[in-house]
Batch of 3 targets.
Target 1
Amino acid sequence: MQKQGKKNPKTCEQCTKKTSVTLPYGPHYFCEKHFTKFFENRFKKTIRKYNLFKPKEKLLIALSGGKDSCVLLYLITKYYSKSNSIQALIIDEGVKGYREKAINVAKELCSKLNVNYLVVKFKKEFGLTNDKLMPLVLSNPTLGGTCAFCGTMRRNLMNKYAKKLRADKLLTGHNLDDEVQSFVMNVFNNDFKRLKRMNATSGIIDYEGFVKRIKPLYETPEKEIITYAAINEIKHYSQECCPYSWTAKRNEYREMLNTFENRFPGTEYSILRFFENLKPYLKSNKNSENKIIHSLHECKNCKEPTEKDYCKTCEMIQRIKKEEMKTKNKKEEKDLTHLNKYNKKLTCQTTKN
Ligand code: SF4
């Protein structure tokens, strides 16, 4: 091992091998073996630090086939398959030419790691696919954002199936970049409610109708997930991103934060630490939380928890179905090619590092 404070960019800071991975925020210089060790130690530390799950708990991993969830599944099986039961949930939102490829990669990984999985489809669950939904949402901006629809529906299914499969925790692949983007977005949007709910665990956590969602990659930068996947040959789908991702405002935040991180390494960790320091002052009022919990009951349609008669997902679907009826005779459904013709905006692919 080299002496602290005497880092040589050309050699690993833990041994005498050539540097393969440089992390400018440290700075850290690692060979592949020691980068893997550093990465995995941080992952395990995050689980301990935020007390994300305990031995014997049943873990359900939301697996998309992308780098984050594939690396998450790989690490969870590597370190916790003896202490916990692990299963994967794959959601098919119905995006032709994209989703099925990612799902095949997800299934392959599950087979390789010996993990049982379940595939649930928007089409079967809601009678809608993203391909059908998106042109309708895009043609009527008053309906809201496309990703908001997709995300709400996905969360509904994740919670529903986590309960059906009797999972204690639902694990998602959210990484440091995602969390920092969400934090800045909530500040820019003055969305104090959402900001308060942000954490390595999320959702209303003390209500039996919600399965606790946890993020073991909460402190892991996106770039390092890509590097780790490459070094450890974890196959994931990365050829293209969701064709609707250009509609997400998040891309603008990703690009802005990447620019800062590249110019001033460590910016994203600083934002996360700032948020962690802020948390004690954001503590929610127990009374108002209890009030929400007491007003929760089953949605009249899908039985998921809600404060109203119908949950947000069912309300959204009703609105979409109405919109579909309205537009049915007016015009033909716009297909994906048509949407992309006038699309010159940022996508998750163009803004990722
Ligand atoms: Fe859904 Fe938007 Fe993600 Fe596509 S980019 S999968 S539409 S949330």
Target 2
Amino acid sequence: MCGIVGYIGEQPKALNVVLDGLSALEYRGYDSAGVAYLDNKKQLLLDKQVGRVQGLIDSLGGADLPPTTTAIGHTRWATHGIPTIPNAHPQSNTDKTIMVVHNGIIENYSELRDHLEKQGYKFVSETDTEVIPHLIDFYTRTTTSFVEAFEQALHQLRGAYGIVVATSAEPDTLYAARLSSPLVFGVAEDALIVASDPSAIMEHTKKVIYLNDYEFVCLHSDGSYDIKDFEHDTVVEREVETLEYDAAQASLGDYPHFMLKEIFEIPATLRSATLGRIKLESNTVKLGGLESVAEQLKYIDRIVIVACGTASYAGMYGEYLIEELAGIPVEVQQASEFKYRNEPFSRSTALIAVSQSGETADTIAALKKVESYGVLRLGVINAVGSTMTRMTDAGVYCHAGPEQAVASTKAFFAQATVLMLIGLYLSNGRSEIYKPLLEELEALPNKAKQVLDQADKIKALAEKYKDNRDFIYIGRGYAYPCALEGAIKLKEITYIHAEGYPAGEMKHGPLALIDENFPTFVIATDSKVLEKTYGSIQEIRARKGPVIAIATEGNTEIAKLADDVIYVPKSMEQTSPLLAEIVMQLFSYYVAVAKDLNVDRPRNLAKSVTVE
Ligand code: M6R
């Protein structure tokens, strides 16, 4: 989704830092990019381009960027108005003295636009953002300082925003504000750098300060800054936090795509999700992040997991496991639906938000919805310091490291593992599968590696099926959420129609679709319902449907039933589908490569969905 970077400092390298930062945010998905910067006469200049950040860099002079100490930049993922130069950010007031970059949506923009048009303001874009510079301009007429005008404007905006503003009236200051859209600034030795995501800052400083909702900050070129809570009209003092950063994790290395690199990081992800958290010698699970709420957890009799997309499928996998391990009823709700439901909610219910980015607007809205209910809000989140980590009472980090490909891969495994750990923790050792599962968690990274060793075989399978237009993915029990995840992966990066179904549902409708051109992926790993899955395969075969099965090593039956089989190492019924998931993620990857598609940045999608 949209990305923001702004720089103010003493060195004339603002454009280099802003453009590097925008490049670091490219993985989030965007369709146009732009910058505003101060020239040597302290006037603001604007450059905007449709397409890649590289196009913007070329337009600004390539290696020879104009020297300047102040710049703001933006990558836009279109919401209001198609990707064009007028709709790209920065948006400005008419005389180009106020430039604004904005992430989020201004919900009352049409009302504000009507009001401003009546005052004589002329609009040149279709964006909601354009109301902001005009509104600030409007208030400069009745206030005595720019900061006052900025604050007055903020009071009028409804919706979600991360905003950075540059003004030629105060060339030594940048203004930034946040409401339901992330914003962080870095405190470097000779500059302040503000961005929507710390990955745009990391290269320059690890010292950062996150803004909270209803806060704005004035960033000065001498390195000083003032934060204000404009809801309560108070000055904010906040400690600087230090980012943990592993440069190797954020770069491609020898891999052609981030998605492949991240799939190959699954064994390491499984290891780091459990590192220091399970102890085989004492049969214990220690989750430091839940210690502060351990007492409250004893009284929880219902859990609601809220999440979107892949995170919701990991949530569903967690639902099955927590119920089996801890005997607590769990339900998963798509965050976008949850927030509009009027369901009864008791104080003994815990809500768990699952998210890779920690910035997904729908999941944030779900957390906000229960704010006044007094329920326990937990997080299973990957991005350290993200909005959700600061909205939850407690939680367990996923520790998957940065995930850059739009298609979530390794994060799914970290989320599933952490939910498994929460189930083990809540079960307090009472479940029959407690000890076997602890042991299996230790063994899983090596088994995952064995699946990855079959990449060439999976690539050949992808070549064989790459021209099919429809797929169905089926599984029973623990394999069902994994089937859903297999299907979303195929559709989002290959644009092939794919659906996930519980295997038992085939005969209740989807079977009508099956013919010789409609292949089915069947997760047929060892489980107590394997015989039933065989039944589903027979039904598909009887309609001439091609079957690709993922089965457990040593299964001699399956080759007689399926057209193609990929074997995964023997594991528990609960964990085998995770090994099958690696096969499905690799399959999608290789189909996308065979079709020469943009694997890491599929069309129409964004990595972090920060609008509702
Ligand atoms: O950052 P989150 O985990 O909250 O993101 C949730 C979904 O937007 C995300 O998983 C999406 O479905 C992925 N692109 C799927 O690969």
Target 3
Amino acid sequence: MNNPTWTSQWQDAINQLQNQLPSQKFDAWIHPLEARKVDDGIFIACASNFFINGLKADCGTIFEACVHDVFGQDIKIHYEVSTPKVKKVDQTTDKKSPASKVDGNIDPRFTFKNFIVGSSNEFAFAACQAVAEKPGESYNPLYLHGGVGLGKTHLIHAISNQLSQKDNIKIAYRTGERFTNELIKAIGSRSTDQFREHYRKVDVLIIDDVQFIAGKTSTQEEFFHTFNALHEIHKQIILVSDRNPHDMSHLEERLRSRFNWGLVADIQPPNLETRLAILASKAELAGITLDKDVSYLLASRITNNVRELEGALTRLTAFSHLTKKSIDMDMAKNVLREQLHVVVRSITIDDIQKKIADYYGIAPKEMKSNKRSRNIAFPRQVAMYMSKELTQSSLPEIGSSFGGRDHTTVLYAHRKIDAQRQEDRAFDDEISHLLNTLHG
Ligand code: ADP
Ligand code: MG
């Protein structure tokens, strides 16, 4: 049993965590935790191993630091999987906690709130929201498809996270692979009846990466019957695939036609604006700030896969934490050399001079001339600034490419443009835009 002092200490730890973590992280990982005192330490109850791993990966260090801070360094922290008990004393009903109603591994971080909507995914997003509002009523089945890393799994976990707040809804979430493996096991142990029963009792069945079952005859057969049984009694079915039903080769025709019964929605790769918004949101979740140029660099180079974009951000964040340096263009180019190598190599001072001359309507040769009138000197300074930002050239090298100027002239130009960017928002936007067009 937890005594009052202990409970208030635990509350202290929670309060510390609330102050130190971004609210989304706190809500996702800390809020659902249950803690119990044991002889040598503290037991943390989590809904699943999946949750434990996520908690540790996402904010394990801060979590343990706060617990040790409050309870002392010697205390041991044990994680255990158990259905969280009824929360807080004031809850008199035996309402089940959200996590207990979902059978399957759902990531609590994937919510509608955390999903950035743009033209590439607004239809899929709206469809998923409609299904989460009225499961079994609006679109059944909902079939979501699109390329790798575009947010399909995020959206269906969001449905599940939202539905799990409602009472009396049983959700089963499976990947096509796991569904198939379970079935094979059931066949092996002659327990297919139980297998069937289990799925037919749920209110919402979600199968992620359903393409996995195509070509597997017995799985398709079983799924077909489960599908019909659930659909007949208006239970919601949600299917996700990397391709649309027509392109699922080896899919039995009768199953394909059923997939088309409800709503088929696709997700396309996000445009630049959406990629920038996703990046900003992920950075905020991670509790870091990204400056505009670095965001542009990432979002303009990593275009087809949000997971890769996130991966780049994670790498930068880790590097910045390890070296205790803030993230800037130099670091980004360095750390993400492999992901971005095309950029780093492809932009030359010559490209920059041409582009900037063109933008300001002067002849490229003026970049190297002696003229010092403002309409020429200013674009030249911008081009020097960009050369330092976008190439690996040293200051003397840049100077010599601008008609044999001294490296201090380049340094001066860089500082001047930098200062002007800080002061003038419109100019800052203009430079970001130019940097971006040079990248692309
Ligand atoms: P898929 O299942 O389509 O392969 P995921 O749903 O696993 O892709 O998405 C990969 C990563 O990208 C996840 O971390 C997810 O949160 C993120 N992601 C994708 N699209 C968006 C979006 N529009 N807004 C926020 N995060 C997104
Ligand atoms: Mg997925």
